[in-house]
Amino acid sequence: MFVKILLLIVFFASMILIGFISRKHAKNVNDFVLGGRSVGPWLSAFAYGTSYFSAVVFVGYAGQFGWKYGIASTWIGIGNAVIGSLMAWAILGRRTRVMTQALSAKTMPDFFGKRFDSNALKIAASAIAFVFLIPYTASVYNGLSRLFGMAFDIPYIWCVIAMAVLTAVYVLLGGYMATALNDFVQGLIMIGGIIAIIAAVLNGQGGFTQALIKLSEVKPAEGETLAVAQTGVFDSFFGPDPLNLLGVVILTSLGTWGLPQMVQKFYAIKSEKAIKTGMIVSTFFAVVIAGGCYFLGGFARLFDGEAIHGANGAMVYDAIIPSMLSSLPDILIGIVIVLVLSASMSTLSSLVLTSSSTLTLDFINGTIVKKMSERKQLLCIRIFVVFFIVISVVIAADPPTFIAQLMGISWGALAGAFLAPFVYGLYWKGTTQLSVWASFAFGVGITVANMFIKFIASPINAGAIAMVGGLIIVPIVSLLTPKMSKEHTDKMFKCYEEKVEVTRKTAIEDK
After folding, report:
1. In a domain, 489, yes or no
2. Counting CB atoms within 10 angstroms of each CB, which of 69, 83, 406, 420 has the fewest?
3. Tens-of-pLDDT digits for all 511 residues of the chain?
4. CA distance 357 to 489
5. Is residue 510 part of a domain?
6. Residue 403's CB: how many other CB atoms inside 10 A?
7. CA distances (Å), 91 to each of 94, 254, 274, 499, in order?
8. What is the C-alpha to C-alpha distance for residues 430 and 428, in angstroms, rounded to an integer?
9. Residue 388 is part of which domain span?
10. Element holding 69 (H helix, E strand)
11. Backbone angles phi, psi at 499, to 5 degrees
12. Spatial separation of the C-alpha atoms in residues 408 and 47, rounded to whole Å
């Protein structure tokens, strides 16, 4: 217990110290929300990665999908690295940084309002972000409950409060730069932790090869619904249910392209070099963390027992990973706790900063309060940081459902609404206002309707359908509805045509 508590004290002390160091980078709204658009490649990459992967992935998704798909769940981590990180940086990074700076847009709703010349779109987008970031925040805490129950004798709610207070302190002190610096430290902890944990768990099963042999002998439970129900399916290349596995890959990988807290990382990048380096570092981070989490979860069926079943015998997916780790030495359990805290606090800080800045800059300023001074905006953002953290603690005290369902609802609605109009808005002059409204309605409509009617069995698949559907709906509606004025669209895309000087190693002279 001494070792575990000592690790937590050192971890928390470093977070607060970074907050105090970062105070000088939070003097105005641009600095507080975007770090003055001067964040380097390593900090940007780790900020992106640690916001991407939280306790939701490590405890909720790794356990649930590792149980369902076996070792094939590793494909989710690969998809997260290739689609969610590499392609996101390559396709969105540069254009997002250039256009948002040209528009002076600090948030995703602000981008929609200025790019499509509609204050109503900005308000609608801020409302969607506000409502659907809340269940995501709840899911971040939810992943901690069983791990703390396994490692400590103190009530879970006090752990949640401590985590919330510490997150609030460093975000309030240093804003985006404090979160980026803490994300870097937390990211290093996550990388070291996941490698150590995988090695320890597999060693407990006799090594990697022996663990695979054991997994190949596992039979699906009686009455379990699988596309392929036979011995050996859980160590196969695509697992027992490839179609539903694909839905998870799409939601968790493509979804990052439309999440405000993820895309906002591109707003803050310092330079062209930072984009290239950040893309490589972010992809490596995703391979290790996401690939490692889902790879570890793939061996979940080797740890079947009473601990992962409820009173009525139903599977408790959130208990799988804690059960796998319960037999580890104290020092490794301490590392696990710090790892999950790192993942959760980094995601929580990103979510509350995004929510508070969106609500202040896109909803209150110019709508409720016609003109707020810089000082009042900064104060309002800080007040809402506290407000969102308090809400998150209240929800976390009595979380309503499984982690995966909470995250699926949040990601499905946000990415289903925002992904398509954001990507098309960056690349295509022909994107219309009505197509953006259509995407908002479709993404939110599918997700919310499915919560009540459940015409799509899994909220994960509902989210994936919302995203892919938006990518089809936006161009179709754009072709059928009135175009925006040529003068406006030319002005929006003018930033891409500005001439800049580069070194010879970057561009070859055109003779």
Report:
1. no
2. 83
3. 677 677 778 877 888 888 888 777 777 888 888 787 778 888 888 888 888 887 678 877 888 899 889 999 999 999 999 999 999 999 999 999 999 999 989 889 999 999 999 999 999 999 998 888 877 776 677 666 666 666 666 677 777 788 788 888 888 888 888 888 888 888 888 888 889 889 988 898 888 899 999 988 887 776 666 656 667 788 888 888 888 898 889 888 998 999 998 898 898 888 777 888 899 999 999 999 999 999 999 998 888 888 787 777 777 777 788 888 777 777 777 777 777 777 777 778 888 888 888 888 888 887 778 788 888 888 898 898 898 888 878 877 766 555 546 666 787 899 999 999 999 999 999 999 999 999 999 999 998 898 888 888 777 788 889 999 999 999 999 999 999 999 999 999 999 988 877 776 666 665 5
4. 27
5. no
6. 27
7. 7, 12, 15, 21
8. 5
9. 2-484
10. helix 62-69
11. -80, 135
12. 22
- Total domain count for the chain? 1
Angle between helices 374-397 and 156-204 (to 10 degrees): 70
Token couple for 62: 């790794």
Determine the length of the chain.
511
pTM for this predicted structure = 0.86
Q: Characterise 197 by phi-psi region: left (phi > 0), alpha (psi -120 to 50), beta (else).
A: alpha
In a domain, 494, yes or no: no
Integer Cα distance of 141 and 156 in angstroms: 10
CB-based contact 121:437 (threshold 8 Å): yes
| Strands in 233-384 per DSSP E | none
DSSP helix/strand/coil, 401 = coil
Q: At what angle do helices 403-427 and 119-142 cross, to 10 degrees?
A: 150
211-238 in b/e burial notation, b at 16+ Cβ within 10 A? bbeebeebebeeeeebeeeeeebbbbeb
By three-state DSSP, how is residue 369 classified?
Answer: strand
504 belongs to a structural domain = no
The torsion defined by the Cα of 209, 210, 211 and 212, in degrees rounded to 10, comes to: 50
- Secondary structure class of 199 (helix, strand, coil): helix
Residue with tokens 């269940």: 135
Q: Which residues contact 143 (CB under 8 A, 6 or more apart)?
A: 54, 55, 56, 58, 59, 60, 318, 340, 344, 403
* CA geometry: angle 116, 135, 17, nearest 5 deg: 90
Q: The domain spanning residue 152 has which CATH number?
A: 1.20.1730.10
For residue 104, which amino acid is it?
S
User: Which 8-state DSSP code applies to residue 269?
Assistant: B
